[in-house]
Amino acid sequence: DTEVTQTPKHLVMGMTNKKSLKCEQHMGHRAMYWYKQKAKKPPELMFVYSYEKLSINESVPSRFSPECPNSSLLNLHLHALQPEDSALYLCASSQVGRVFGNTIYFGEGSWLTVV
Amino acid sequence: AQSVTQPDIHITVSEGASLELRCNYSYGATPYLFWYVQSPGQGLQLLLKYFSGDTLVQGIKGFEAEFKRSQSSFNLRKPSVHWSDAAEYFCAVGTSNDYKLSFGAGTTVTVRA
């Protein structure tokens, strides 16, 4: 019953392609996240947007380019990816501020395969 | 920096039996603690969380967890498991200072008939 919606659910792309992953939430959250998850591993934080501004970039390669067009939307633009970038990409959102404890809610994820 | 240890990589339990998953955290101040579940091919679903107050917290799907500060633990329990509880379970710790969650390595739960 996630309220974070991700599209597409599955994506296969070549190493020279440009594609985008999209994420939407309507919970009024002002922080949005991208995580990457490999099989049998915990999610790894990639980016955090707070109030539509990039707050955290965990040294992610530039072939991944995030974008936050408004408070409800988050995109991840993909270009010149490598096969090792194949993974589940999870979008998440949370409220902002200490009183909320930053409870993070995840979407269902987008399965990316790079060929 | 905070960290989380889930000592059990894989647990097999019979349907109807009780389940307990262990989680130990390391953090100098009061932690924010979470349990998430991930069914095969799905995203992460929040089971429950602890911020403060009552150390026994109830979550969804019949799960509960107990925060024990003296043991730096936040173990997850369910009295009677269902086949649909077969999944990966992640314990995570956050802080009041930033957006980062530290996840444990996860525990895979298999339910046998």
Proportion in β-strands of chain A: over 45%
| Broad structural category of chain B | mainly beta
The N- and C-terminal alpha carbons of chain B lie at a distance of 41 Å
Query: What is the residue-mean pLDDT of chain B, rounded to a whole number?
Result: 94
**Number of helical regions of chain B:** 0
Radius of gyration of chain B: 13 Å
Major sheet summary line of chain A? 7 strands, mixed
List low-confidence stretches of chain A: none
Helicity level of chain B, as a percent range? under 10%
Helix content of chain A: under 10%
In total, the number of strands of chain A is 11
Element pattern of chain B in H and E: EEEEEEEEEEEE
Identify the overall geometry of chain B: globular
Number of strands of chain B: 12
Most strands sheet of chain B: 6 strands, mixed
List keywords for this structure.
heterodimer; A: 115 residues; mainly beta; seven-stranded mixed β-sheet; 0% helix; 56% strand; B: 113 residues; six-stranded mixed β-sheet; four-stranded antiparallel β-sheet; 12 strands; globular
How would you briefly describe this protein structure?
The complex is a heterodimer of chains A (115) and B (113). Chain A is an all-beta fold and 115 residues long.
Descriptive account of the structure:
The complex is a heterodimer of chains A (115) and B (113). In chain A, 0% of the residues lie in helices and 56% in strands. Chain A has 115 residues and is mostly beta strands. Chain A contains no helices and 11 strands. Chain A has strands spanning 4-7, 10-13, 18-25, 31-37, 44-50, 53-57, 64-70, 73-79, 87-94, 105-106, 110-114. In chain A, strands 2, 4, 5, 6, 9, 10 and 11 form a 7-stranded mixed beta sheet that branches. Chain A has a 4-stranded antiparallel beta sheet with strand order 1-3-8-7, with no helix packed on it. Chain B has 113 residues and is mostly beta strands. Chain B has strands at 3-5, 10-14, 19-21, 24-26, 32-38, 45-50, 56-58, 64-68, 73-78, 87-94, 102-103, 107-112. Chain B is globular and about 45 Å long. Classes of the chains: A mainly beta (115), B mainly beta (113).
